[in-house]
Design a protein that fits this description.
This protein is an alpha+beta fold. It folds into two domains: 150 residues, no CATH class; 196 residues, Heat Shock Protein 90, CATH 3.30.565. It is built from ten helices and seven strands. The strands form two sheets. Strands 2-4-5-7-6 form a five-stranded mixed beta sheet, with helices on one face. Strands 1-3 form a two-stranded antiparallel ribbon. Strand 4 and strand 5 form a beta hairpin. The longest helix has 56 residues.
Length: 354
């Protein structure tokens, strides 16, 4: 048991070693800032009090760093200011508590601990405010630097992935173009109305893919929805009453943007991994929920067999990676006994990572 605990501590330390090192550096910097002014007045200091009070300031700084990491990591938007205020207040209270419990005197010129407690607490709260003004900007400096480095790494990775995708597209470009042209020929010769409609919708699917394969990564909800309608028509011819796709996206969301083929990935994921039959129909709902689009289906998973289709990396994980590259938002996946639900955020231009 002890060996497992030590191993877990080692793994945790290794995972957070950079934050720990930064916290130690920030905590060491604060007692060093006040040390020169204290050394200049040796008549007011004892070696015991000097070392002890400097250690107390170090402890306060380290605790403030831990509070900053716990409260402020990854916090953005309207909640950031509230979290910063809470962090500053906690730092002020922490400074007062540690000073009151410490046997050392941080103000050697006169004994602060002999003063009345309102004055003493006020001085310690002000010192906590000053120290928070050092720790919190230091935390945001390191966090923003990490974000910039991550953005650079992501861009380099995206460039490499784009090169690989372009190479694959060059190798396979003849296939969709050839099929698209063949469908147009087949449409002109089709006599039955359902065959003609089927070919038209299938052509619309390939036209959408070919039109946007070299385009930007985002499309409007309205454009993606038109594609889903064509995709649904083709699926209906295959599954009939066994599949139902209901969309409820109002006009207020049509101009918002999502990654290309995002809805198709979610519909395909539902079709791929669930039983579809007239006796056990699969019902897929697509609707808007504030700034999100929700895709939900009743859960009736397939067992592995000849019809079971494994993911080739173009499913939920790929969609999550695309969101991380395009914005700071992510998708939400939830599964319970009855439903499988995925919520994807609609992206505004200001949210897109440049």
């Amino acid at each position: 048991m002890k060996i497992q605990t030590l191993e877990q501590l080692r793994i945790s330390f290794y995972a957070h070693r950079l934050k720990i090192l930064r916290g130690l550096l920030v905590a060491i910097a604060m007692p060093l800032l006040v040390l020169p002014s204290r050394i200049e007045r040796p008549e007011f200091e004892t070696q015991f009090n000097l070392i002890g009070s400097e250690a107390s300031i170090f402890l306060v700084g380290l605790c403030m760093w831990v509070i900053s990491v716990m409260l402020l990591t990854g916090v953005n938007g309207k909640h950031r200011l509230v979290k910063i205020i809470i962090c500053v207040l906690l730092c002020m209270v922490l400074s007062t508590i540690i000073y009151e419990l410490s046997p050392f005197e941080d103000y050697p010129i006169y004994s602060l601990k002999k003063r009345e407690w309102p004055y003493r607490v006020t001085r310690m709260m002000l010192r906590g405010l000053f120290m928070a003004g050092f720790v919190i900007p230091a935390f945001y400096y390191f966090e923003n630097r990490d974000k910039r480095k991550k953005a650079v790494r992501d861009m380099e990775r995206l460039k490499q992935e784009n090169l690989a995708i372009q190479l694959t597209a060059l190798r396979q470009q003849i296939n969709p173009h050839f099929l698209f042209n063949a469908l147009n020929v087949l449409k002109s010769g089709a006599n039955e109305e359902w065959v003609k409609n089927y070919v038209i919708k299938l052509s619309d699917i390939y036209r959408y893919i070919l039109t946007h394969q070299n385009d930007q990564n985002l499309v409007s909800v309205a454009i993606e929805l038109e594609f889903i309608h064509a995709y649904n028509f083709v699926l209906q011819e295959r599954f009939g009453e066994g599949l139902s796709i209901v969309t409820d996206l109002g006009p207020e969301v049509e101009d918002k943007q999502i990654p290309i083929l995002a809805l198709q990935v979610l519909v395909e994921n539902a079709v791929k991994h669930n039983i579809i039959s007239a006796s056990k129909p699969l019902k897929i709902q697509i609707f808007s929920d504030e700034d999100y689009i929700t895709v939900r289906n009743n859960l009736q998973p397939r067992s592995k067999g000849w019809e079971y289709s494994e993911s080739l990396g173009t499913g939920l994980l790929n969609l999550q990676d695309r969101y991380e590259l395009l914005s700071e938002m992510g998708i939400s996946v939830n599964e319970d006994a009855n439903f499988f639900t995925v919520r994807i955020p609609m992206i505004y231009d200001k949210c897109v990572v440049a």
